[in-house]
Structures are given as C-alpha cells and as structure tokens.
Design goal:
mainly alpha; 12 helices; 77% helix; 0% strand; globular
C-alpha cells in the first residue's frame, strides 16, 4: 500500500472540513425550522412566538423580523446542501493553487457571498408573505395561499421550467468546475464576488420553485425537504435538464387542476 502524498492528505482533510461545516450548517437550519414548525403546532398556542402572525392584523416589526429569520433559515437549510458540489471543488482548486504559491482564496467567503444572495431573497419572500397576509390571501396559519393564488403559482413555476433563463442558470449550476475556471478571482473580495455570482445563477434557477412554499404552506417542513431534494437532483443527475422540464409539465398539470377545482 503506497503512502498518501502530503498534498493528497491535505486535500482530503480540506474536503472533510468543508463537508462537515456544510452538514453542521444545514443540520442547524433544519433543526431551527423543525422547532418553528413544532412551536406552531402546539395545542397551547398562547406561548407560540408566531401566534401574532396567525391573526388577521397588521404585522409589527417583530413579526416581520421573525418571518425573515424563518425564510433565512429555510434558504440556508434548502440551498446550502445543493451548493456542496461547488464548495468542495472550490476548496480543492484553492488548495492546489495555494500549493503552487498562488493567492489563497477563503472558501468561507465564497459561501458567504452565496448566502447573501439567498438572504436577500429571504427579504423579498418576507415582503411577499406580508403582502399576502395584509390582503388576507393566506388560508392557514402555516402560510399557504388560497387556491386561486396557489394555482397561479403552480402554473407560473411550471412554465418557468421551460424558459431559456431557467436553462441558462441551471447550466451554470450543473457545471461547477466550468464556473470556477471562468469566474475565478483572487483574494477574499474575489471569493465573495464569486459566491455572489454563483448565488445569482442559483437564484435564477430556483426562485420560482421557492414560490411553491406558498402552495403547501411556508412552514411545511416536509414540503421544504421535497423541494430541496428536487433542486439537488436537478443540479447533479445527468438528465437534470429533462428532470426540470418533466417537473414543469407536472406543475402545470397540478396548477390547472387546482384552478379547475376552484371554478367548479
């Protein structure tokens, strides 16, 4: 058995560290979301920190802030695992460059840039939920939209799966090595910019899918897991583009059925 060369050992260690950090972040986010869902489902709602959000009344700053943290936790839980492939490749490329006396680029800064994009989306999603709440278009405490709105969201999400924008963004997400080779920037600022850029493509690929949370309920943890798993499959399986298009047909059919039931 040949001994592992020093660089190979270091690369293996770096991959392990990055993977462990991602697992810890995702697990913490999922635990937080699980607690929120449990808190909302308790029989005695008098102690629920989301009780005020279930009432038909204007939100105060505290409700807006709590909803943002809920969406931010959701984005971290759902999207950090899907970013694992590019982060692991980034760490390997970064280490090899460092071994050749090229500038070190922190992987954490890349992840920070990626998360900034999704936290910005969390602000937007919070605003949308606030607007639906104000218009009394959320049908349950967990934040599912009334059937008409849900049907429209399903139709729009299904149609988006077939657009050129979706295809272009998904291509970037499915080729992490190509992205790193063409978008590489040195230094902490460069890593942050790279993370922002990749996050932009990821957002462009998945933002309509996040709208599906308003269909089954914003705090439906099982639905979150289904959407997160689908996004991961779409990014990593060989036929990911076709998976997305098939899903688009399913969503259009689901949306059509939902609206049909409203009419009849």
């Amino acid at each position: 058995m040949q001994p592992v060369r020093p660089l190979e050992a270091i690369l293996r260690r770096d991959r392990l560290i990055v993977f462990a950090a991602l697992v810890l972040m995702a697990a913490s986010a999922w635990a937080y979301l699980g607690y929120l869902a449990w808190d909302m489902d308790r029989d005695d709602n008098s102690g629920s920190m989301f009780m005020a959000m279930s009432q038909v009344m204007p939100w105060a700053r505290i409700e807006f802030g709590l909803t943002f943290f809920m969406w931010a936790g959701m984005m971290m839980a759902m999207m950090v695992p899907t970013a694992a492939p590019i982060l692991l490749i980034f760490a390997v490329v970064n280490r090899r460059r460092f071994e050749h006396n090229q500038p070190f680029v922190p992987t954490g800064m890349f992840l920070l840039g990626y998360l900034i994009v999704w936290f910005a989306f969390a602000v937007l999603a919070t605003g949308i939920q606030w607007g639906l709440h104000q218009a009394a278009l959320l049908s349950t405490m967990k934040g599912s939209a009334i059937p008409v709105i849900g049907g429209v969201i399903l139709l729009a999400a299904g149609a988006f799966q077939w657009t050129s924008v979706k295809n272009a963004c998904l291509t970037q997400c499915r080729t992490p090595m190509g992205f790193i080779m063409t978008e590489w920037r040195d230094g902490s600022k460069g890593a942050l910019i790279m993370g922002l850029s990749h996050g932009k493509y990821c957002l462009g690929c998945c933002w309509f899918l996040m709208g599906l949370m308003f269909v089954a309920g914003v705090m439906n943890v099982l639905w979150m897991a289904v959407v997160a798993l689908y996004i991961l499959v779409e990014k990593i399986v060989p036929a990911g583009h076709w998976v997305g298009r098939v899903a688009g047909v399913v969503l259009i059919g689901w949306g059509t059925w939902t609206l049909f039931r409203v009419v009849v």
